[in-house]
């Protein structure tokens, strides 16, 4: 009964590959997010969707493309992976303007 | 040259002592101030939050105080225990439906 679940948890891939991370929430929240946490632990918002509509798109390379097929899902696709993309990617959801609930994280390592 | 490694501010405390972490914000319209705890290898989780209409909130050994005039809020952990060792993030809303996270503070409780 995990509230925000994301897969895969660990991903090791070569530079230049394309990969996707999937996220689902069963909390009924309208808003979903993708955050990136680098090796220095900075938590940076990448994208936010509200009811399948993109509302926040921070300065992220357009190799990163989020997709929200419905309000319970927000997937992240990354093209042409680079070494600097190595990080932990957290999916999250929230009722609008309130507590953010994070998924368990996806550890991406680009080699 | 390039420095490698974490650049988190670190607070080391003896078990049983108190720990205080302060966070400043810039948007005077902010009205919601959460603190998140992230244990090693885990997701950030909300531990306490405060709204701008109160000055202090307490939940067992943790408390949050808010100084709206000075635009800062602090996390207080009393009688620290080894399981309090973690990275703590403050956050504050900005713009429309955005929650900005602070840099994170590493707390190390020494048994």
Features:
heterodimer; A: 111 residues; mainly beta; seven-stranded mixed beta sheet; four-stranded antiparallel beta sheet; 0% helix; B: 111 residues; six-stranded mixed beta sheet; 10 strands; 54% strand; disordered N terminus
Helices and strands in order:
The complex is a heterodimer of chains A (111) and B (111).
Chain A lengths: L3 E4 L2 E4 L5 E7 L5 E7 L5 E8 L2 E5 L6 E7 L2 E6 L8 E8 L6 E2 L3 E5 L1
Parallel strand pairs in A: 2-11
Antiparallel strand pairs in A: 1-3, 3-8, 4-5, 4-9, 5-6, 7-8, 9-10, 9-11
Chain B lengths: L9 E5 L4 E6 L7 E7 L6 E7 L4 E4 L2 E6 L4 E6 L8 E9 L3 E4 L3 E6 L1
Parallel strand pairs in B: 1-10
Antiparallel strand pairs in B: 2-7, 3-4, 3-8, 5-6, 6-7, 8-9, 8-10
What does this structure look like?
- The complex is a heterodimer of chains A (111) and B (111).
- Chain A is built from no helices and eleven strands.
- Chain A is mainly β and 111 residues long.
- The mean pLDDT of chain A is 93.
- In chain A, a hairpin with a 2-residue loop joins strand 5 (43-50) and strand 6 (53-57).
- Chain A starts with a strand and ends with a strand.
- Chain B is mostly beta strands.
- Chain B is 0% helix and 54% strand.
- In chain B, strands 1, 3, 4, 8, 9 and 10 form a six-stranded mixed beta sheet that branches. A four-stranded antiparallel beta sheet of chain B has the order 2-7-6-5, with no helix packed on it.
- In chain B, strand 8 (86-94) and strand 9 form a beta hairpin.
- Chain B starts with 9 loop residues before the first strand and ends with a strand.
- The model of chain B is unreliable at 1-6 (pLDDT under 50).
- The A-B interface holds A 31, 39-45, 48, 50, 55-56, 90, 96-105 and B 6-8, 32, 34, 38, 42-46, 49, 87, 89, 91, 93, 96-101, 103-104.
């Amino acid at each position: 009964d995990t509230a925000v679940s994301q897969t895969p948890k660990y991903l090791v891939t070569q530079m230049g590959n394309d990969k996707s991370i999937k996220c689902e929430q069963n909390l009924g929240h309208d808003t979903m997010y993708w955050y990136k946490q680098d090796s220095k632990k900075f938590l940076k918002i990448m994208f936010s969707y509200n009811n399948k509509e993109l509302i926040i798109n921070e300065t992220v390379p357009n190799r990163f493309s989020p997709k929200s097929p419905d309000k319970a899902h927000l997937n992240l696709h990354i093209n042409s992976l680079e070494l600097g993309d190595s990080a932990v990617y957290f999916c999250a959801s929230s009722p609008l303007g309130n507590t953010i609930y994070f998924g368990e994280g996806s550890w991406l390592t680009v080699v | 040259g390039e420095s490698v490694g974490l650049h988190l501010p670190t607070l080391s405390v003896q078990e049983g002592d108190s720990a205080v972490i302060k966070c400043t914000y810039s948007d005077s319209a902010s009205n919601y101030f959460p603190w998140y705890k992230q244990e090693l290898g885990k997701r950030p989780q909300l531990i306490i939050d405060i709204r701008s209409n109160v000055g202090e909130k307490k939940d067992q050994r943790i408390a949050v105080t808010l100084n709206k005039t000075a635009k800062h809020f602090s996390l207080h952990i009393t009688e620290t225990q080894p399981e309090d060792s973690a990275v703590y993030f403050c956050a504050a809303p900005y713009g429309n439906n955005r929650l900005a996270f602070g840099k994170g503070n590493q707390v190390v409780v020494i048994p």
